[in-house]
Amino acid sequence: MSRGSGLHVAIIMDGNGRWARERGLPRTRGHRAGAAAVRRVVEASPGLGVETLTLYAFSADNWKRPRPEVNALMRLLHRYLRTETAELVERGVRLKLLGRRDRLPTRVLKAAVDAEHATRDGDHLDLQLAIDYSARDALVRAAELLRGSQVPVCPDRFTHALSRAMNAQGAPRDVDLLIRTSGEERLSDFLLWECAYAEFVFTPTLWPDFGGEDLERAVEVFHRRERRFGGLSTRPAAAG
Ligand code: IPE
Ligand code: IPE
Ligand code: MG
Fold it and tell me: Which of 69, 86, 148, 210 has the largest count of CB atoms under 10 Å?
C-alpha cells in the first residue's frame, strides 16, 4: 500500500473502568485488559486498509484522576512500549507519539522515544499514540508556531498555514473514521482539527472487549457512508 492511499482511523478507547467495575475488579485491571485490545486492533488494521491508526491513550485532562490511577496508567504505557516494540518492528508498524512530552515521567518518555526510533522504518502501519494529548493545546501550539511568521490573511492560505503548523508538531492527517467505544458520544478534546470531515462510529462495546472484528464492522459502516465534503451527492437518486 503506498502512503496516503489508506484510511486514517482514530479511536477513543473508552470504558476500561466500567469493564473492570462490571467484574468487581479495580479500574487498573480494566486498563490492563485495554492494552490487549490495542494489540488486537494494531494486528487487524493493515488487513482492513488502515494506513494510520491514532489511539487516544491518555488525555491532558486525565491528569485529574486520582494519583494511583495515573501512576498505574503510566506504568502500563511504559510496559506496553517496552514489551511491544519488537513486535511492532516485526509487523512493520511505525510508532509516533502525539501530545505534550514535557510532563511525562522520564522513563515513559524515554521508552516512547526509543520505540519511535526502533520502529522508524515501519511501512505497514503508522501508529500514533496520543498521550498527554489535548487538541486545543495542539491548536494553540500551532498558532504559536505561526506567530512571528508572515501569517496570511486570506482564509484559505491561513488554513493551509495552520495545517502545516499542525503537521510540524507531528499532528496527523485528516481523520477518515473516528470510533469511540463504551457508548459515550463526544470528542473529549481529541483531534478537533483533523476530524473536520471524519465519519463517526459509536459503539456500546467497552474498550477491553473490542477486537479485530469490531474494527472490521466499523470500517464496513464507514464504506457504506457517503462523504460529500460540502458538495452534492454523486450517487444515483433512488427510483420513484
Ligand atoms: C479509558 O477508559 C482509558 C483512559 C481514559 C485512560 P476509562 O478509564 O475512561 O473508563 P471509564 O470511562 O471510566 O469506564
Ligand atoms: C477520553 O476518555 C480519553 C481517553 C480515552 C484516553 P475519558 O473517559 O477521559 O473522557 P470523558 O471524561 O468521559 O469525556
Ligand atoms: Mg472514560
Answer: 210
pLDDT score of 109: 98
Q: Which fold has domain 7-133+173-222?
A: Undecaprenyl pyrophosphate synthetase (3.40.1180)
Average pLDDT, the chain: 94
| Mean pLDDT computed over 12-32 | 98
Q: What is the pLDDT of residues 139-149, one digit of tens each?
A: 999 988 888 78
Q: Is there an atom of ligand 1 within 6 Å of 132 CB?
A: no
How far is residue 99 CA from its own chain's centroid?
A: 11
From the CB of 208, is ligand 1 less than 6 Å away?
no
Where do the structural domains in the chain lie, given as residue ranges? Answer: 7-133+173-222
> Under DSSP, is residue 231 helix (H, G, I), strand (E, B) or coil?
coil
pLDDT at residue 239 in the model: 59
* Adjacency order of strands within the sheet including 7-12: 93-98, 125-133, 50-59, 7-12, 177-180, 199-202
Q: Whose CA is nearest to atom 3 of ligand 2?
A: 59
CA 42–ligand 3 middle distance (angstroms): 21
- Distance from residue 18's CA to the centre of ligand 3 (Å): 8
Q: Residue 89: pLDDT above 60?
A: yes
Q: Span 77-89, mean pLDDT?
A: 98
Whether 8 and 54 have beta carbons less than 8 Å apart is answered as yes
